[in-house]
Amino acid sequence: MSSAHFDLQAAARQIMLEHGFEPDFPPEVPLQLAELKAHPPQVAPGGDIRDLRQLLWSSIDNDTSRDLDQIEVAERLPSGEIKVLVGIADVDAFVRQQSPIDGHAAKETTTVYTGIRNFPMLPEELSTSASSLLENGDKLGVVIEFVVSPDGGVNSSDIYRAIVRNQAQLAYDSVGAWLEDKGPAPVKVAASTGLQAQLQLQNEVAQALRKQRYQNGALNIDTAEVRPVVLNQQVVDVVSQQKNHATDLIEDFMIAANGVVARMLEKVSSLRRIVKTPERWDRIVQLAATHNERLPAQPDSKGLNDFLLRRKAADPDHFADLSLAVIKLIGPGEYVLERPGDPEQGHFGLAVQDYTHSTAPNRRFADIVTQRLIKALLSGQSAPYSDDELTAIASNCTLKEDAARKVEREMSKRIAAVTMSNKIGATFDAIVTGVTPRGTFVRVLQPHIEGLLVQSQGVDVGDRLRVKLTRTDVQHGYIDFARA
User: DSSP string covering 13-29, please?
Assistant: First the structure.
């Protein structure tokens, strides 16, 4: 089948089904949505719900995102510290526990982004509208507040419910370019000196948080993601998405907020997001040795990060590929139950002992569960889940997250096969990204596209080599390379 006539939309749906997802909502969901539309949650301050609509909240996300989970605002205190407020969409207010929508979300656990089509965990009437923190709408939120010292330490924190209003919906690329003095201010930013000052303050405190995390051993990772360029329903190219000050800002606030939530929930059973100490540390040591660097014999996130920082300074053009190799060797994260008094397993990549997922409830079921735990604790109600239920949820969320990665990977390969189908015989610089029983995989440096390396004896993750494109199969998403 020619790439021009291959139906990527249909392929995405089929791959979702093959990996255990249910892309269609059950018939009870429209009835629940109709009931929600007729009787929406009351959006009004009072009781334990504060009114914070007057603050200069803004969001930064992808240009096309409408499932907005997080807004931010900051204030410099007389002490010189900076207070940060992260507002999270109150999705639980719209999705009753054990309702049809909740049941579907509990099975799917995550929104899957295939590059050509999104498969939302929640109906889009909620995730991209009613429960999304879209611009200029009064919304229910859970606010995570923390005070940051000039050295990046989090000194105090609080969590509460509030009514919030996103004053400016902004995008990563344009805000990032402006913050880095590489581009003009976005229109909304240019029109508001208050918003300019607000974003500069947020950038300042985010960099302090990041510096502190790196000092603690958090890994400086920079992977090069790609997104398809679609013209007239056809993929015509893929382009790299680069990290910048705006993406870093949101990431830093998200990590700090998730840490605040994890510490708040220490006295009750809750979900934790962990990344175990890497089993293939010996290979990471070998990888460092190829760059004439020595790492400790035992896993050491601080030592690894110091090595990564040196490599980023020495060879920024290839840092994303080194990062990818390290990520593969560290391994994926997982969700676990943590009960009061349990030893903390921690997150190796972030160098933190207390971490959960709470900042994306429109996109991840674990975050809805965590939100319910927070609200129960704030209101003095009994726990909404038993330990056995949390264990089962953690297991399914880990399972489906792994499945979602596979769906996204399979679709990215099909999209890549479409764009590479006219480049048979071309040669590329590449890096080995995976060695599995199914074969050895390489990633081309430009464009960042992965494929199978035939005749791959004697190579391992992180090795660099020159490869030639020998075959593409759009229907199956196969891209084959040989050593050039």
Answer: HHHHHHTT---SPPTHH
